[in-house]
Design brief:
CATH topology of the largest domain: Dihydrodipicolinate Reductase, domain 2
Strand order of the largest sheet: 3-2-1-4-5-7-6
CATH superfamily of the largest domain: Dihydrodipicolinate Reductase, domain 2
CATH architecture of the largest domain: 2-Layer Sandwich
Strand content: 15-25%
CATH class of the largest domain: Alpha Beta
Distance between the termini: 22 Å
Order of helices and strands: EHEEEHEHEHEHEHEHEEHEEEH
Radius of gyration: 20 Å
Length: 341
C-alpha cells in the first residue's frame, strides 16, 4: 500500500462534505488533493466552516479540473444522480466512495420507483457494494465503487441484521420510529419542508413512503432470504445533528430481551464502533454526537414476546462521512479506526 492516499471530495461545501474534510484533515495517511463544488470556485473552504483552518487545504475547484493520474479515492457527497455521471470519468485505479443513493438500490426499476428518475449507469449497479462496514469488512477491497448507506438505514441495520441472521425475531412486524436532527435534510431544508415553526417543533415526514425504506427492505430481505417490508416513520427534531431510532420487535420462540442483548453483545464484540448499552437502559444521542459510534440499547417490553431496541448515531459521521472513511480504511487495508478516534 502507498504511504499516503490522494483524495478528492466532490460536494465539499455540504454538511457531509465538510465533515469529510475534518476527518480526512487529521487522517495520517490521506492527502486531500481537491475540494470540488459547482459554486464558490476559488474560495477557501473555511468560509463555509470556521472550524476548518488547515492552511494546506486546496481552494474549491470544479471536478472537471481534477488530474486523476495520482488520485486514489473519490468521495461523492452530492445530490442523487450526480455520482452516476462522474463515475464514467474516473480511471480504473481510483475508487469511488459514494454517499448518495446512486448505487444503494440493486434494481434500477426500484431506483426509478423511489427516486423518480432513470438510473444513468444501469450496467454497473450490480458491480458495486452496499457497505455498512460492520457487515462488509472482508469484501471492500474487491470493489471499485463503494456505496455508503443512508443514515436511518445504518441505525436500523446494525442492530437488526444479526437478529435476522439468527432468526430470533418475527420479520413480519418490524416497526421503526426514527428521529433526526435537521442537518440530515441538507442545507436546503427550508425548500424541502414548509412545516410551521420547523426549527422549534417535531415533524413527521415521508410517512409510508420515505426513500430509505427501499434500502432497508432490500438489505434485510437479503439476510432473511425472504421478502421483508418494514413500517418506518422518520421525524425531524429541533436539533442540528443525531439520530435516534426506536425499533419495536416481536420475538420468536423462547427468545426474550436478555437473550437478544447477549446475542448482539457477542455479535458486535469485535466491531469497534458499535457500543451496546447496559441492559434495559434507555439511551439518547448525547453519547455519540461528533463520533463514529453507533450505540444500541435493548429494553424489555411489558409483553414478554415483544422487545424494544434503541439505536443512536451521528447522522453526519457514522451515518455519513465517518462510515465512508471507515470503508476507505478497510478497502485500502489500513487500520479501521484511522482518522476516526
Amino acid at each position: 500500500m502507498k504511504d499516503s492516499l490522494n483524495a478528492v471530495i466532490a460536494g465539499a461545501t455540504g454538511y457531509i462534505g465538510l465533515e469529510l474534510i475534518k476527518i480526512l484533515s487529521r487522517h495520517p495517511k490521506v492527502k486531500i488533493s481537491y475540494l470540488c463544488a459547482t459554486k464558490s470556485i476559488g474560495k477557501s473552504i473555511n468560509s463555509f466552516d470556521k472550524k476548518i483552518n488547515k492552511k494546506n487545504l486546496p481552494k474549491i475547484s470544479r471536478i472537471t479540473n481534477v488530474n486523476w493520474k495520482n488520485i486514489d479515492v473519490l468521495f461523492t457527497a452530492l445530490p442523487n444522480g450526480e455520482a452516476q455521471k462522474i463515475c464514467r470519468l474516473i480511471p480504473r485505479h481510483t475508487k469511488l466512495i459514494d454517499l448518495s443513493a446512486d448505487f444503494r438500490i440493486n434494481d434500477h426499476k426500484l431506483y426509478k420507483k423511489w427516486y423518480g428518475v432513470d438510473h444513468k449507469y444501469k450496467k454497473i449497479i450490480n458491480k458495486t457494494i452496499y457497505a455498512i462496514t460492520e457487515f462488509s469488512k472482508h469484501d471492500l477491497s474487491k470493489y471499485k465503487i463503494i456505496s455508503c448507506p443512508g443514515c436511518y438505514p445504518t441505525s436500523v441495520q446494525i442492530p437488526l441484521i444479526p437478529l435476522i441472521k439468527k432468526k430470533v425475531i418475527n420479520t413480519k412486524n418490524i416497526i421503526i420510529d426514527s428521529k433526526s436532527g435537521y442537518s440530515g435534510a441538507g442545507r436546503k431544508i427550508k425548500k424541502k419542508f414548509n412545516f410551521k415553526n420547523l426549527f422549534n417543533s417535531v415533524s413527521a415526514y415521508g410517512v409510508g413512503f420515505h426513500r430509505h425504506m427501499a434500502e432497508i427492505d432490500q438489505e434485510l430481505s437479503k439476510v432473511a432470504k425472504s421478502k421483508i417490508n418494514v413500517s418506518f416513520t422518520p421525524h425531524l427534531i429541533p436539533m442540528f445533528r443525531g439520530i435516534l431510532s426506536t425499533i419495536y420487535l416481536d420475538t420468536r420462540g423462547k427468545t426474550n430481551a436478555k437473550k437478544i442483548y447477549n446475542l448482539l453483545k457477542k455479535y458486535h464484540k469485535n466491531n469497534f464502533f458499535v457500543k451496546i448499552a447496559k441492559y434495559n437502559t434507555p439511551i439518547g444521542t448525547g453519547d455519540i454526537i461528533n463520533t463514529n459510534y453507533c450505540k444500541i440499547s435493548i429494553c424489555e417490553n411489558r409483553k414478554k414476546d415483544k422487545i424494544i431496541i434503541i439505536s443512536a448515531l451521528d447522522n453526519l459521521i457514522k451515518g455519513g462521512s465517518g462510515q465512508a472513511v471507515q470503508n476507505m480504511n478497510i478497502a485500502f487495508k489500513m487500520k479501521e479506526t484511522l482518522g476516526l478516534v
